[in-house]
């Protein structure tokens, strides 16, 4: 019984690794970078639209999310200046969920590394 359980575990692990091809890695990284590029350009509504459940948000909740994102970006600008660059530096994918690590460089030359949880919605990766 131990051997069959071990074999099943190996098969599941291999299936997961095969399903996470290099293409998924580049797509999830591009999706996270695209989302934060909207933030960088001050396109807060587009940034919020990259959240997986954005279509089911009420108008009031969506407006609150846009306001919060705007306030947070304004805070970062006061602390460090504008976002000068956003680059995906690593990712982890398990099935339809991922975590992308972005390095954000600011106008004052400081940088910050953040983790962005992502989820696959259909064929597209969205922020979670």
Low-pLDDT runs:
none
Largest sheet features: 4 strands, antiparallel
Strand line-up of the largest beta sheet: 1-2-3-4
Give the count of helical stretches.
4
Q: How big a fraction of the residues is strand?
A: 25-35%
The number of strands is 4
Overall, the morphology is flat
Helices and strands: which structural class?
alpha+beta
Write up what this structure looks like.
The chain is α+β, with helices and mostly antiparallel strands and 128 residues long. Helix content is 51%, strand content 29%. It is built from four helices and four strands; from the N terminus they run ααααββββ. The chain has a four-stranded antiparallel β-sheet with strand order 1-2-3-4. The radius of gyration is 18 Å and the shape is flat. The termini are far apart. The mean pLDDT is 88.
Short note summarizing the structure:
The protein is an alpha+beta fold.
